[in-house]
Write a structure and sequence with these properties.
It contains 17 helices and 19 strands. It is α+β, with helices and mostly antiparallel strands. Strands 12, 13, 14, 15, 16, 17, 18 and 19 form an 8-stranded antiparallel sheet that branches. A 5-stranded antiparallel sheet has the order 5-6-10-8-9. It has a 4-stranded mixed sheet with strand order 1-2-4-3, with helices on one face. A hairpin with a 2-residue loop joins strand 18 and strand 19. The longest helix has 21 residues. It starts with a helix and ends in a 20-residue tail after the last helix. About 50% of the residues are buried. It binds flavin-adenine dinucleotide. Flavin-adenine dinucleotide binds next to strand 3, helix 8 and strand 10.
């Protein structure tokens, strides 16, 4: 690429997955293109890079005492205008990042969070909390609907660290802006682990996990961050919200539950006491093949209903398994990856018991030398970086997820797949949708769909919005939730509006008004009329 183009390109730190990394070069992408074309079955265009235009000047200034915490650097503001959904990736790549926050503000203590909220109240500025910025649902950028007021992005990464460990109760007090690897590194010397690993682990924070009700990659038992919470502390515009540390409590509606999933709409989570565990020392894994995805799902249901709950239990359809490089799985089949682990005892017997249940249900075990499980795990880790390369080559590449009781799963899988395939045919003239089960419960499962389709240069955002609308309508129509763990954000707001009971919506609006009477916090979030169609 010519030096001049390089200079004008949107900085990688704005749209790229790894803020310390660098973008793929055009030559690298050209070399990748034939492999992708062969794997996906459609042809791709030339790699494209956009440029970052001039941003409107900030409309607000911090109070003098807070000024050292603020930044009006254009690339910083641009980064905080977007999350990490496909639509955000396109906006970043194209340099079309507006609306942008007027300022990025980085408090270093809870007291500074309180001071910034007080200043924002006086200045009439909206406040959007920002953890790792890995939202895939339009959770972190300002919305045009709130454009009449200035908005700051409150970046919490300087509130970082494991602040206290209670070894006796096995719990840790962790600052909200701590990124996944820093949590693990701080707990490791005590032989402890949070054992919470979302795929976005490296680039997401404890506060973000709590605010979005994130789920880790363990498929059973302690799946959601909700399951790990002892207490949460948050700063609201009207004061502090701090719950008592308890292993369980029946004292009325839970203050923690109310903050979980609040997505910055009730206040800023500053820290939490979370349950931690001894680091696992014993592990065992097995890979099996099912004759079809539905029959594999049935085996997973029988496994969970038998009372067994292997930590890893991922069912991946044959096309997705093959694309990941997993050998020994044909297109109509499905791969089941099982894994057990423990800090205290060998787990081979537990794993064999799980294998016996799914074999009884008709699954075929792959030899222990098979690399299928590893291939899929590696593809899972590499996915964020591959995704941006595919987008640069013009591929529409996005995922969506849901959860549904087992009784409705076969119909949901059929209907959602058909709705997306129809949409792909009409909107893109081709493409494909694949599915895996990321989480499993005795009464249901969480299907996770991946869409790959040829984009029309310049129209990809509109194409994806139409595909996503068709998918979301089908998910709700089949009895699923609009999200199992990605959260609501602005993108899911219309469907969240349909899903939640109207009386509950009114109760939530009342709660928001009570803690944030002037509507500072994450303005426009969940407004069903400011949906993803603006993006
Ligand atoms: C490649 C990839 C893989 C992913 N894998 C998973 C996965 O396995 N499981 C999963 O659950 N999600 C996953 N996600 C989605 C995303 O990582 C999660 O939603 C994550 O919890 C967001 O954390 P964050 O710190 O990046 O929050 P952000 O994206 O910064 O913010 C998300 C929302 O929370 C609010 N918020 C953030 N911090 C605070 C705070 N301290 N107080 C109040 N509100 C706050 C923000 O205002 C926003 O509304 C993935 C995303 C990507 C891009």
């Amino acid at each position: 690429m010519a030096g001049d183009t390089m200079r004008r390109m949107v900085p990688y730190a704005v749209w790229g997955w790894d803020p310390t990394g660098s973008p793929p070069t055009a030559d690298e992408l050209r070399q990748l293109r034939p492999t992708v074309e062969q794997s996906l079955g459609f042809s791709l265009g030339e790699p494209r890079f956009g440029q970052l235009g001039e941003l409107p000047p900030p409309r607000v200034r911090l109070a003098a005492a807070l000024e050292p915490l603020g930044s009006d650097d254009p690339a910083d503001r641009a980064r905080h205008a977007i999350g990490r959904s496909y639509l955000d990736l396109l906006r970043g790549l194209n340099g079309a990042v507006e609306p942008v926050p007027d300022l990025v503000v980085r408090p270093t203590t809870p007291a500074e969070v309180e001071q910034v909220l007080a200043w924002a109240g006086d200045a009439g500025a909206g406040v959007v909390p920002f953890g790792g910025g890995s939202s895939v649902v339009g959770g972190v950028g300002p919305v045009p609907a709130a454009a009449e007021r200035p908005v700051i992005s409150l970046d919490l990464q300087r509130l970082s660290g494991v602040l206290e460990v209670d070894r006796t109760s096995r719990a840790a007090r962790i600052a909200a802006g701590t990124l996944g690897p820093a949590v693990d590194a701080a707990l490791r010397p005590d032989g402890l682990s949070l054992r919470f690993f979302p795929q976005s682990y490296e680039q997401s924070t404890v506060g973000g996990w709590l605010a979005t009700r994130a789920a880790g990659h363990y498929a059973t038992k302690l799946q959601h961050i909700d399951d790990l919470v002892e207490s949460i502390t948050a700063c609201t515009p009207v004061g502090w919200w701090e719950s008592r540390r308890l292993p369980g409590s029946g004292a009325g509606p839970s203050p923690d539950r109310m903050l979980l999933g609040s997505e910055g709409s009730l206040g800023v989570i500053t820290e939490a006491w979370l349950r931690v565990q001894d680091r696992p020392r014993h592990r065992a894994t097995a890979s099996l093949v099912a004759g079809s995805f539905p029959s594999g799902a049935d085996a997973v249901r029988l496994l969970l209903q038998s009372g067994l709950a292997p930590a890893t239990c991922r069912l991946i359809d044959g096309v997705e398994a093959t694309t990941s490089g997993a050998p020994g799985v044909a297109a109509g089949e499905a791969l089941l990856v099982l894994g057990a682990e423990s800090a205290s005892h060998p787990v081979e017997d537990e794993l064999e018991a799980a294998v016996a249940v799914v074999e009884e249900a008709g699954l075929r075990r792959l030899p222990p030398t098979s690399s299928a499980g590893d291939a899929w795990r590696n593809a899972f880790k590499a996915a964020p970086l591959l995704r941006e390369r595919l987008a640069l080559l013009g591929v529409i590449v996005e995922t969506f997820e849901t959860a549904v009781p087992w009784a409705h799963f076969p119909a949901l899988h059929r209907e959602v797949t058909a709705a997306v395939e129809n949409a792909l045919h009409e909107i893109c003239g081709g493409g494909r949708v694949t599915c895996r089960l990321t989480h499993a419960y005795p009464d249901g499962c969480a299907p996770y769909f991946t869409v790959l389709a040829p984009g029309r240069p310049g129209s990809e955002a509109g194409q994806w919005r139409d595909i996503k609308s068709a998918a979301s309508d089908a998910v709700l129509g089949a009895g699923g939730t609009i999200t199992h763990h990605h959260a609501v954000g602005r993108d899911h707001a219309p469907w969240y509006g349909q899903q939640r009971p109207p009386v509950f919506a009114a109760a939530l609006a009342g709660a928001r008004h009570a803690v944030d009477p002037t509507g500072l916090m994450n303005p426009g979030l969940w407004d069903t009329d400011s949906d993803m169609h603006y993006r």
